[in-house]
Specification:
Layout (H helix, E strand, L loop, with lengths): L1 H5 L1 H4 L4 H27 L4 H12 L6 H8 L3 H13 L3 E6 L2 E9 L1 H22 L4 H31 L1
Helix pairs in contact: 3-7, 4-5, 5-6
Length: 167
């Protein structure tokens, strides 16, 4: 890598193959998001809105906002705006959690459920098409590899949090 070789003194400790792999992951992720962008926007969704609705669909009857943030991979502050937008569109609502009426959770509305019923077949078809060139073994390997990359992201976030705490 040209950039790495020009900065060998500062970056010589970094494995060039790791950088190539990370850049390839970023390029493919960007293309995948683009491939789904049209499908999401045709239904008034973004990747985050879709992920939140799917999380709620899977975790019925409801989820706490913090659980949605963790599942979608956004901050708790970001999930508040996400939920507000989904509420404005009538796709989710607040639901009292158990007997504690002060603790709120988020639930799909019928309109949200109906949207998922329309969106899921289209999105899942696109997902299947994108991974069709891979054999079943290659798909399982890809899932394992991406899991390790995600573990690396979690470790990096933890290290950043510790660094911020020390500052």
């Amino acid at each position: 890598m040209e950039v790495l070789s020009r900065r060998r003194e500062a970056l010589g400790h970094i494995d060039p193959e790791a950088l190539v792999a990370a850049q390839d992951f970023l390029r493919v992720a960007k293309r995948m998001l683009g491939a789904f962008g049209e499908a999401f926007s045709a239904h008034g969704l973004s990747p985050s809105r879709y992920a939140a609705l799917i999380a709620l669909d899977v975790q019925r009857p409801s989820m706490a906002p913090s659980e949605i943030a963790d599942r979608v991979g956004v901050t708790r502050a970001t999930v508040t705006g996400l939920i507000d937008g989904l509420m404005r569109d009538g796709l989710v609502t607040y639901a009292a959690e158990g007997t504690d009426r002060r603790r709120k959770s988020i639930a799909l509305t019928r309109k949200g459920e109906a949207l998922i019923d329309v969106v899921v077949p289209d999105i899942f078809k696109r997902m299947a098409e994108l991974t069709a060139p891979l054999s079943p073994d290659e798909r399982r390997l890809a899932v394992r590899i991406l899991g390790k990359v995600e573990d690396g992201l979690a470790s990096a976030r933890l290290a950043e949090t510790k660094e911020e705490t020390r500052s």
